[in-house]
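Bug report (template v2)

What were you trying to do?
Predict the complex of my protein with flavin mononucleotide.

What happened?
Run completed; filing so the output is reviewed.

Input:
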Amino acid sequence: METKKAIELRRSIRKFKNEDIKKSVLEDILNCGRLAPSAKNRQPWFFVVLKQEIKDKVADLMIEYTNNNDESKEVKKLNSPSSVLPTANVIKEAPVLVLIFKEKDDNWTIGDNLSIGACVENMCLRATELGIGSLWIRDIVYVAEEVAEMLHHSDLELNCAVSFGIPNQNPLPRPRKELEDIMEWYE
Ligand SMILES: Cc1cc2nc3c(=O)[nH]c(=O)nc-3n(C[C@H](O)[C@H](O)[C@H](O)COP(=O)(O)O)c2cc1C
């Protein structure tokens, strides 16, 4: 598939078939993440692949978070968590959840975050090409510390996650701003 076709066809998928993804296919997708460019070639990512009960445990932590939404928690300062519950349900439905951890280093925050964006988009585009649906997930950030602790990775920071699976929906393209409205051109 041409790159442009994959870019045009990719959608956030939130309904998945009850079907696993082969390890070789997942490795192919992760490898495309690994090949992404990164600021200073730091490659700040570390992937943890979760399936079955341990994956569902992450979703349960998110559900628990929405149930006892503790006002005092630091994460409340981020965007509204109204989407946390629906995202947790997607995590349960998809057979695979890939967590993307990042090195803790305050000197490189912006560069490392940009690099992880490139890495995740590479994975989502390759997944599209292979007929695999994906959902890029930031809502997991509300339970980032709990998840890191559960997986013995408290030395790292959970940046985001991606659910992967065989799509069970075929969403229309979501709206985008017109190019002329987001561009200025001097020549
Ligand atoms: C960094 C990032 C974080 C996202 N986090 C979530 C999330 O936590 N839950 C969710 O349902 N969708 C999430 N999305 C998906 C967006 O809602 C989606 O990309 C957007 O609505 C456009 O739809 P499309 O991906 O189908 O083009 C995220 C997307 C990005 C790029």
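What did the reviewer find?
The pocket of flavin mononucleotide is lined by residues 11-12, 83, 87, 135-139, 160, 174 (CB under 6 Å). The chain has one domain: 3-166.
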